[in-house]
Amino acid sequence: SAYPIDTLRAELPALDWITEPHRVENLSRDFAWYSPVLERTLAGKHGDIAVRPRSEDEIRAVVGACARLAIPITLRGTGTGNYGQCTPLHGGLILDMSAYNAFLWARPGVGRAQAGIRLAAFDDAARPLGWELRWLPSTFRSATLGGLFGGGFGGAGSLRYGPLAAPGNILAVRAMTVEPEPQIIELRGPEALVMHHVYGTNGIVLELEVGLAPAHDWLEGVATFDDFDAALRFGADLGRAPGLVTKEVSFMAAPITDYFTKLGLPQGRHAVVFLAAEFCEETIAQMLAERGGTLSYRATAAEVAASRRTLLEYVWNHTTLHAFKVEKNLTYIQSAYNPSCYLEQVRTLAQRFAGEVQMHVEFLRTKEGEYSCSGLEIICTRDETRLAEIMQAYRDSGVVINNPHTCYVEEGKQNLKLNPQVLAMKQRFDPQGLLNPGKLKSWAPAQPLAQEPAHA
Ligand code: FAD
């Protein structure tokens, strides 16, 4: 290694260190293999050592030592990200936050926990009090709250509450600076959001305070249709029906639900996957009858709890994961449709790329509260040239691409327009540029890091 890793470990012998190369390599990886581009560019990149602190004191000790020894730090929740966000480009320490995971409290509409808490564990603690998280990525069983904040967008629940970045969702973060004597600072409101979706490059998040949603018993269903358009319109109308309490509505064109081999669904149908409060079932059945759809799968909250099978693990980017189990020569894109014409855009692009793009969209509210949908389209090739052409055609037709084929902050969701506050926050929290170096391209460190060509 180019860094004094042995000194670091010798200074703090009581910490939970992970040194076996194969374990450190595993802790350097996420689900970037979804992308042919990232699979190629991140091959061989890994940390030199990992540590799993259990307390704020342990985090402070290791972070202070890294600052003194100029060792890069890449934060990790549980590595379910999709863009190599937790893969170090320059080696160094993997700071695994998953053991720093206490649920702290919930009051009406608000809750707080340590960053390494798994989302499912948060909900298990909050639900008896009548509350639950406002957004669940389909990886909720293992993904952490800090990882969702650092690298995620939203998920089931964004239909009602929008993405994490919508005002009122993230109320505060408690964060640590990377300095020889680390400081701990509470950031509230818009200031807290400056650390959101920047891949752990501008601060170490210790705790999050988040808005909560009322908990319901959720009915899970798959409605299927012969007709693409009837299914798409049903999904759109179900998700925005003001009298219904829905948590999740997604549209999947045929043959996507054929990949869901364990659900026993009829083959070759266009589908709407939904979670709605159980008391909405009668109204949904009426809507479905009017539109010629069939309820092809149904599970009550009690059945979901007993079976541990939930449709939450069939939506968002789990849809793509099920496709991969059947067909390897695939990848995907992430798109944001225009609220003023999303249905037309979905129809037009589905027709234009028939046979090449399998249409999957998630209905949601945008940061500004507009109703729309965002796509996680399955692309039936891993050819990088064709992939780039398809993404360009989407952009040309007015659909925003949140490029999942890059590991750089500026090229993903931020669409090249980096908020200057992100860099100011980096200067404040990480003046030496040790956090996940290389991911924030606009940051020019005063002292270049040790080069590690051995990993190239
Ligand atoms: P990691 O992957 O471990 O980390 C993510 C980023 O956050 C990294 O850059 C890391 O450095 C940083 N980070 C971690 N902890 C901290 C901390 N304490 N302080 C500062 N930075 C930190 N995402 C969605 O938003 N919605 C979805 O519906 C969704 N579905 C998915 C489905 C599948 C099948 C897969 C593979 C991924 C999906 N994702 C989704 C992406 C990902 O699972 C989520 O964003 C998840 O919440 C990330 O949590 P994690 O603990 O795995 O984070």
From TrEMBL:
Stretches assigned to the FAD-binding PCMH-type domain: 42-215
Keywords: FAD, Flavoprotein
Keyword Oxidoreductase in annotation: no
PROSITE patterns (alphabetical): FAD_PCMH (PS51387)
Family annotation (SUPFAM superfamilies): FAD-binding/transporter-associated domain-like, FAD-linked oxidases, C-terminal domain
InterPro entries: FAD-bd_PCMH (IPR016166), FAD-bd_PCMH-like_sf (IPR036318), FAD-bd_PCMH_sub2 (IPR016169), FAD-linked_Oxase-like_C (IPR016164), Oxid_FAD_bind_N (IPR006094)
Coiled-coil parts of chain: none
Record-linked Gene3D superfamilies: 3.30.465.10
Keyword Flavoprotein: yes
Pfam family name, one: FAD_binding_4
Domain of life: Bacteria
PANTHER family with a match to the protein in the record: D-2-HYDROXYGLUTARATE DEHYDROGENASE, D-LACTATE DEHYDROGENASE
Protein name (record): FAD-binding oxidoreductase
Organism: Ideonella oryzae
